[in-house]
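cron nightly-structures :: item 1 of 1
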Amino acid sequence: MEDLSDDQLVSAFKALGHPTRLAILGWLKDGNSFPPQDRPADEVGVCLKHIQARANVSQSTASQFMATLQRADLVICTRIGQFSHYRRNERTIAKLGEAIGGDI
């Protein structure tokens, strides 16, 4: 597995530097801890509206949080109709864990 560049590491750590974004990444580890959806969370991810509700933030703030995590390649977005669903990018998270010498 290819190592993350210094720029990728900085981007990931900046994205995780906000407590709510860090919490969201943790919540997404078990997508089934969110309310049921039409499609299973482990297949398409968790709908932004569920992330927003759990984080108790506005839709625009939730979107900004997820955009930051996505730019850092920590989450993957799948669009289904008008809704965005997010799941963890386990490949990048594993690389990040290797870079700091442990699991995240």
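cron nightly-structures :: done
The CA atoms of residues 1 and 75 lie 18 Å apart.
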